[in-house]
Design goal:
Layout: H1 7-30, H2 37-50, E1 54-55, E2 67-71, E3 74-76, E4 90-99, E5 102-111, H3 117-136, H4 143-156, E6 160-161, E7 167-169, E8 176-180, E9 197-200, E10 203-205, E11 211-213, E12 220-222, E13 228-230, E14 233-237, E15 242-244, H5 249-259
Antiparallel strand pairs: 1-4, 2-4, 3-12, 4-5, 6-10, 7-8, 7-9, 9-14, 10-13, 11-12, 14-15
Helix pairs in contact: 1-2, 1-5, 3-4
Bound molecules: 2-amino-4-trifluoromethylsulfanyl-butyric acid (MF3) and cobalt (II) ion.
């Protein structure tokens, strides 16, 4: 069943989404060659706890992290580990924070140092496809309109869309109805109504769309081991259109800070 949020519930969603956005902003400060993915996970967990939230992925059906860690060919649900990031890697960090009973869900894929131009294009197109999906998420339109907008944009650029994982409704639970696939036909699926909250999250592969799940039952990677990118926002459907409840602003501020060149004092 699809929940329509009350004004009070929407306030709760705003707060949870602000927390997860700030959390990824903290993570962004640490993404660099030489840093382990476990360090990033610790930063995220401590930030959420320090701000009165709960890391919702940690312990979810046994998942062992606050962040899902998605290095290079990992599509989703990778575990934090002792893996040391190296120049040229990409890393997706997918995070859900619960605050006072509501969930905010967001994901950002970072470049670690300088990356290959081709991989940079994959990141750019995947992020743009998220905003294409959001643009299509208008009241009175349907889930399939979002799906089709993401798929069309990515496939035109020469990439493929992962089929096995979808976006989703979100609220008092991390995953609510409806499912929000990143592929499909216009005009099908549930109608979008004001008060609905959904997480849109394109998972886009440079090579084929095929994925495999590792023997731990969680970690999902591309079958051809080519890179995969993933960005996610939680949004609210409104009377006029939609509002993006999460934001990449804190991430972008952190990334700018990192490249600032500090002249040595004379
Ligand atoms: N952000 C992920 C999602 O959108 C969170 C699920 S990861 C899990 O589905 F570890 F909690 F399962
Ligand atoms: Co999600």
């Amino acid at each position: 069943m699809i929940y329509i949020k009350t004004a009070e519930e929407i306030e709760g969603m705003y707060a949870a989404c602000e927390l997860v956005s700030r959390t990824l902003g903290e993570v962004a400060k640490w993404v660099a060659p030489g840093v382990t993915t476990r360090k990033l996970d610790n930063v995220a967990r401590e930030f959420i706890l320090d701000n009165g939230g709960r890391p919702a992925c940690l312990g979810y059906q046994g998942f062992p992290g606050t962040l899902c860690i998605e290095v290079n060919e990992t599509v989703v649900h990778g575990f934090p580990s002792g893996y040391v990031l190296k120049e040229g890697d990409i890393i997706g960090t997918d995070c859900v924070a619960e605050l006072r009973g509501f969930h905010g869900d967001s994901c950002y894929t970072f470049a670690v140092g300088e990356i290959d131009d081709k991989v940079e294009r994959l990141l750019r197109v995947t992020k743009e496809s998220l905003y294409k999906g959001i643009e299509a998420a208008q009241p009175g339109k349907r889930i399939g309109d979002i799906s089709n907008a993401v798929q069309t944009y990515c496939e035109k650029a020469g990439y493929s869309v992962v089929r096995e994982m979808c976006g989703h409704g979100i609220g008092k639970s991390m995953h609510e109805d409806p499912e929000v696939p990143n592929y499909g036909r216009k005009g099908i699926g549930p109608i979008l109504k004001p008060g609905m909250c959904i997480a849109i999250e394109p998972m886009i592969n440079m090579g084929s769309k095929n994925v495999v799940i590792e023997s731990n039952g969680w970690e999902c990677r591309t079958r051809d081991r080519k890179p995969s990118a993933h960005y996610e926002h939680t949004i609210l459907i409104t009377e006029e259109g939609n509002e993006i409840l999460t934001t990449f602003r804190y991430i972008e501020e952190a990334l700018k800070g990192e490249t600032e060149i500090v002249e040595p004092e004379k």
